[in-house]
Amino acid sequence: MRRGFFITFEGGEGCGKSTHIGMLCEYLHKRGYDVLRTREPGGPALSEKIRELLLFAKEGLQMTPRTEILLFEAARSQHVSQTIIPALESGKIVISDRYADSTAAYQGAARSIAMGEVKMLNKFATGGLEADLTILLDIPEEEGLRRAATRDCGKTDRMGSQELNFYRDVRKAFLDMARENPERFEIVSSEGPKEQTFEKIVKAVEQRLLKNV
């Protein structure tokens, strides 16, 4: 039986997920929690190989949307079975940089794959495993892309090199999902100072962890 706690971070490009995940892991470690940090696509070795193909390999430049979603789901299936579930069963807090909601936003809404098909594929890949808490770091797409370009020195990966309208669709999809699932999502603006953003994240996490005790 699952005993841990599963947190996912979602958001568009440049929203600050990596920074705040790192800060949250350190915060929880200091309070005695056993924490596993992971990411999607990625995690176990096989999923990391798929990540390389999806984001960086030249062979992926002509990838079709259907191929793309199937590769994301393949990476996710291995990630869930090999990394996430064992960690939760051992009582860890698992914090993942992206999960199934990213597929719904990027491949479903922005790539125009029917949401019914996306939900079916997500459920199949995860075995129905959902996050206990999803932190949605929200930022206007123009500002997020500016931050991402600065962070990456202009060398963005394939998913960070789309047209502006693509990211507008992604942001709208994330916000729509959050409003439809308020019991799981916490929307946190990441426009201001990171310290201010992190305070909101900690408050949301502590409230959910207390309910889980």
What does this structure look like?
- Helices cover 56% and strands 13% of the residues.
- By secondary structure, it is an alpha/beta fold.
- It has a single domain (5-212), classed as Rossmann fold (3-Layer(aba) Sandwich).
- Strands 2-3-1-4-5 form a five-stranded parallel β-sheet, sandwiched between helices.
- α2 packs antiparallel against α3 (65-89), α3 runs parallel beside α5 and α4 crosses α7 (164-180).
Summarize it.
By secondary structure, the chain is of the alpha/beta class.
- CATH homologous superfamily name? P-loop containing nucleotide triphosphate hydrolases
Q: What's the architecture, going by CATH?
A: 3-Layer(aba) Sandwich
Order of helices and strands: EHEHHEHHEHHEH
Globally, the shape reads globular
Portion of residues within helices: 55-70%
Count of strand segments: 5
Question: What is the average of the pLDDT values?
Answer: 93
Low-confidence stretches: none
How far the N terminus sits from the C terminus, by CA atoms, comes to 15 Å
Number of DSSP helical runs: 8
Strand order in the sheet with the most strands: 2-3-1-4-5
